[in-house]
Write a structure and sequence with these properties.
242 residues; mainly alpha; 11 helices; two-stranded antiparallel sheet
Amino acid sequence: MERGHTTSDRALQHDLGRNLTHGMLDTLGKAIVIGRYETRPFPTEAEIAKAYGVSRSVTREAVKMLTAKGLVTARPRQGTVVSPASQWNLFDTDVLRWLLERKFSVDLLRQFNQLRIAIEPEAAALAAQFHSAADMAAIRAELARMAAAESGTGDPLEADIAFHVAILQASGNPFYAQFRTVVATALHTSIRFTNRIKGRSANIADHAAVADAIATRDADASRRAMRRIIGDVLDLIGDQRD
């Protein structure tokens, strides 16, 4: 007699199904972004299931997620078709990651940092006005982490990203805080690129200037200090070409 499924069995099956779905999402999303379906139609659910050896339910869920990200749309009598790039959700971290992985693009990095300079200096100014003691402690902790990473203790890239995310969080504004995943995703590529140009990692003194201005609740100085950091990045990118 066959043994019934236990709760742990069902949980494992659920995790496997979820992992398969996200794996299928990643495969199809990358294929769309690199242009695989520019000259041929997007496959049907049955074709995807057969090609990749997954169930129709996994395929269906993956396509639903692609639709939510703006990469595909369902049209009457046409099935699922790839949407124009102008309709893709660039604030979706998967879409942004696929774009950055597709082909290294200086233009994309420039555009991302142009967005940063519209967001992060104002977030720093808000953090200066509204930060809590816990927020300030988090900013100082990430600054210390950056300094330690410079001495070989820890990852300079992750510490730099965490510093910027801590300031978005300290703004006290949930809309700014929501940019943390987008900023973190794109900074992984942006910081690596600019560090390679500079031959070194982030300028600790410039980041300390932001933290000090926030600590003294000087909104204007916080804004200027953050603009200086991102402005330097844009200057570095400015002389580069794809």
